């Protein structure tokens, strides 16, 4: 009989030798060796970043492992491994971005999805904010896909991030407004930056008129 965890988290995509360890981490992490958690979390992170279609599932898998370990052992070694890995990826962001822009964007999406699953962990919030500040930087503003990533993440988790740390969100939005007003910002970045500004002004929920303006969407209430 197939283990339901294989289907839920698509564990069959991982190397055969690693699958039993991942399943054990989800069932009873107390049986894992002291050095088992880092390679487990490391491979899940790497696969989630390399394969953008796995970002959401990978974040849920990481969160499930962390929560199970805390429940069974009262330890947070899985979370510590995850934060260390994400910090290392962020530290090497310039090289990652040069190697593959899609991988960098996938990393940002992965970290933001992790925040959705694990909102009570301040270390993760810091990494998310760092990523968003980077996306408002002059180099990233030259690339439409990175600007779109910024707006996508703010649409998804902006409200929750602000509730965690309003002061940092204020600082981020100072940068967004400065970028929108800067004479040398690419014309293609101005509309999504304006959308980000209006999003917060509307308390993180675009109204029908804004949706029609930015997406050309007619909602039922607008017809």
Number of domains: 2
Low-confidence stretches: 218-223
* Major sheet characteristics: none
Radius of gyration: 19 Å
Our measurement of the CA-to-CA distance between the termini, rounded to an integer number of angstroms, reads 51 Å
Helix content: over 70%
Which descriptor suits the 3D outline?
Answer: elongated
Number of strands: 0
Please give the CATH architecture of the largest domain. Answer: Alpha Horseshoe
Q: What's the average pLDDT?
A: 91
Instruction: Assess the beta-strand content as a share of residues.
Output: under 5%
**Which H/E pattern describes the elements?**
HHHHHHHHHHHH
Task: State the CATH class of the largest domain.
Answer: Mainly Alpha
The helix/strand class is mainly alpha
Count of separate DSSP helical elements = 12
CATH domain fold name of the largest domain: Serine Threonine Protein Phosphatase 5, Tetratricopeptide repeat
How is this structure best described in words?
The protein has 223 residues and is mostly helical. It folds into two domains: 1-103, Serine Threonine Protein Phosphatase 5, Tetratricopeptide repeat, CATH 1.25.40.180; 136-223, Serine Threonine Protein Phosphatase 5, Tetratricopeptide repeat (Alpha Horseshoe). It is 72% helix and 0% strand. The chain contains twelve helices and no strands. It is elongated.
Summarize the structure.
Helices cover 72% and strands 0% of the residues. With 223 residues, it is mainly α.
């Amino acid at each position: 009989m197939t283990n339901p965890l294989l289907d839920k988290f698509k564990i069959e995509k991982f190397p055969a030798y690693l699958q039993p360890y991942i399943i054990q981490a989800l069932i009873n992490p107390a049986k894992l060796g002291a050095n088992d958690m880092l390679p487990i979390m490391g491979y899940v992170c790497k696969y989630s970043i390399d394969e953008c279609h796995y970002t959401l599932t990978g974040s849920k898998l990481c969160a499930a492992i962390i929560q199970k370990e805390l429940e069974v052992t009262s330890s947070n070694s899985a979370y510590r491994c995850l934060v260390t890995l994400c910090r290392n990826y962020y530290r090497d962001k310039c090289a990652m971005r040069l190697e593959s822009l899609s991988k960098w964007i996938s990393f940002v999406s992965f970290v933001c999805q992790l925040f959705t699953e694990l909102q009570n962990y301040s270390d993760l919030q810091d990494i998310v904010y760092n990523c968003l500040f980077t996306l408002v930087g002059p180099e990233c503003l030259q690339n439409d896909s990175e600007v779109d990533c910024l707006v996508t993440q703010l649409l998804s988790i902006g409200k929750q991030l602000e509730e965690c740390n309003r002061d940092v969100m204020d600082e981020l939005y100072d940068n967004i407004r400065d970028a929108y007003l800067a004479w040398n910002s690419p014309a293609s970045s101005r509309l999504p930056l304006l959308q980000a500004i209006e999003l917060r002004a509307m308390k993180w929920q675009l109204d029908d008129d804004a949706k029609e303006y930015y997406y050309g969407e007619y909602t039922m209430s607008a017809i």
